[in-house]
Amino acid sequence: MTIRVLIADDQAVVRAGFRTILDAEPDFAITGEAADGAEAVRLARRDRPDLVLMDVRMPVLDGIAATERLAGPAVDDPIPVLIVTTFDLDEYVFDALRGGACGFLLKDIEPDDLVQAVRVVVSGQGLLAPAVTRRLIAEYARASRAARPGPRPIPDLTARERDMLLLIARGLSNAEIAGTLFLSISTIKTHVARLLAKIDCRDRVQAVIYAYEHGLITPGDPP
């Protein structure tokens, strides 16, 4: 299967670097490059890539708004979006994740890690670099806590489902959860799929945000 990727970044040197790395893989194909969010939305809707690598700060339309138009809750047929961020400078990545992004990459990612990240997200796993993900979401959850309402009602979760959600929110992979709960990875995958359906979350990224927003875990909680 060919993995088709659209690269969206306002810096030509970044686009060229990502293209060089991904083009070296025999099963990757670059569908196009976009220098702003509006162009990214247009090209993604036209070509339907398997994944969009989306910068945050771009002219015309920023990456957050573009992500919501491609993968937001109101989109019937979403296109997976992977945010590319400098992390320390981008203040709105949490909003992008809430808007439907599958996860995020740091711009200084190693070439092999970029390739692996794309493969992981295209395979349907949304949460990348668990330790960094926890840090990112914790920072933005803390920053915006005062502006958000209190914990919302949650559906009835079994003790096992609650444990599963907490482990996902702390950034554990399926293999790590399996080791913690002494279950097989295939069983964990089944439990995770059922949990996501029950809490109406599209992927693990949304499950992490769900846990924060419903007060199941708060910034600073131990991993």
UniProtKB/TrEMBL annotation:
The organism of origin for this protein: Actinomadura algeriensis
Domain Response regulatory residues, every copy: 4-122
Lineage: Bacteria, Bacillati, Actinomycetota, Actinomycetes, Streptosporangiales
PROSITE patterns tied to this protein: HTH_LUXR_1 (PS00622), HTH_LUXR_2 (PS50043), RESPONSE_REGULATORY (PS50110)
4-aspartylphosphate: residues bearing it: 55
GO molecular function: DNA binding
InterPro entries from the UniProt entry: CheY-like_superfamily, NreC/VraR/RcsB-like_REC, Sig_transdc_resp-reg_receiver, Tscrpt_reg_LuxR_C, WalR-like
Domain HTH luxR-type: 150-215
Keywords of this entry: DNA-binding, Phosphoprotein, Transcription, Transcription regulation
Protein name stated in the entry: DNA-binding NarL/FixJ family response regulator
